[in-house]
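Box 3.1. Reading complex inputs
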Amino acid sequence: MSVIANACNCNRYYDVMNDSRATHIAALVERIGRLLNTEAHTEGLLPVQWETLRYLNKANKFSRTAATLTAYLGITKGTVSQTLKTLEARRLVKKHVDRRDRRSNQLSTTAKGKKMLESDPLAITVSALDQLDKTSQKALSTSLESLLSMRLAAQDRRPFGQCRNCRFFTPDHAEGSPNYCLLLRETLSASDAGQICFEQIAK
Ligand code: SF4
């Protein structure tokens, strides 16, 4: 509908403009997603296998299980199981018994898996984003985080935010240092603070 046709009704005019902007952004996100997906068919891996490697490399010790990976990816257990089987067969991921719950297995990337991440196809997009100035990067990051958070909340899915931004994260606690988790009652290392967690609830 044209601007002139809506000029007599300001609210409707702004609605149409906002819809148009939102539709444009959604189409951009879709095209970028398609580009990333195409580029992630490399080194003999599929996009979901790259995403699994990245996840296991940045998730904390409470979040590296098949169940939490399934929740993060939002795909079926069967696909996750097949993905892990392939990555284990290629010795990029390994399983070990979880010391907190001996009935379940904890997952981690192997040295070979970490080496593979040096060829991560996402690096092409990281280097394009590095060309934006810091203000644009911050604005883009804040907007995309809000969008992702809204979309996940609508599907009743968890955000998997960073540990240092969690309401249970406590630096210099009497029970544990340098950091402590008030929810899981565990000491956290300095590097744990930068990892993502299934249980995270933003401050
Ligand atoms: S402080 Fe929050 S994010 Fe960190 S381990 Fe505990 S629950 Fe997870």
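In summary: The chain has three domains: 1-39, 43-131, 162-203.
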